[in-house]
Structure formats: structure tokens, C-alpha cells
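Quick one:
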Amino acid sequence: MFPVLKPIVETIQPFLIPICLVVAWGFILSLGWGLFNGVRSAVKRGRTMHQIPCTHCKFFTNDYRLKCTLHPSIANTEKAIRCLDYHRSLKARH
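Output:
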């Protein structure tokens, strides 16, 4: 070891374990908080996506070229949640 660093290391050594403990727990807590926020936002997004009524509408074609005959630009998007032209098809009722 470098002779110049020896007194500095000996001075810091009693504080290294508590500092490492705080840093490790801070990392674990920030990782847990990030996972919690990720799951929370995924659940929120999933609830929003399940409100889209397009697949049960009689104007929905289920074709990737033309998904909706009335509003092809908003079909299967969040803008279609409050679609005024939404009509349930007879297949979805049974």
C-alpha cells in the first residue's frame, strides 16, 4: 500500500462499514421503489387499454389494413374509449 494513504485509510476505516451499509440499503430501496413504480404504471396502463371497446364494436373489421370502417385512425387507441359510434355486435352479446 502507498505510505501516504495509510493514515487516511486508518482514519476512515471505522466509518466504512456504516457508510457501505447506508449505500447498500439506499440502492436496495431505490431498486424496490423503481420496481413498484413500474408495476403501478403497468397496471394503470392495462386498465386504460381494457376500456377500449373497439373489438366488440360491429364496425371493427379485425383486419390490420382497416381496423374500423368509421374511424380507422383512432381504432384500438385511447381516443376510441369514448367513441360516439360504438355499437355492440350481436356476437359479443351472447
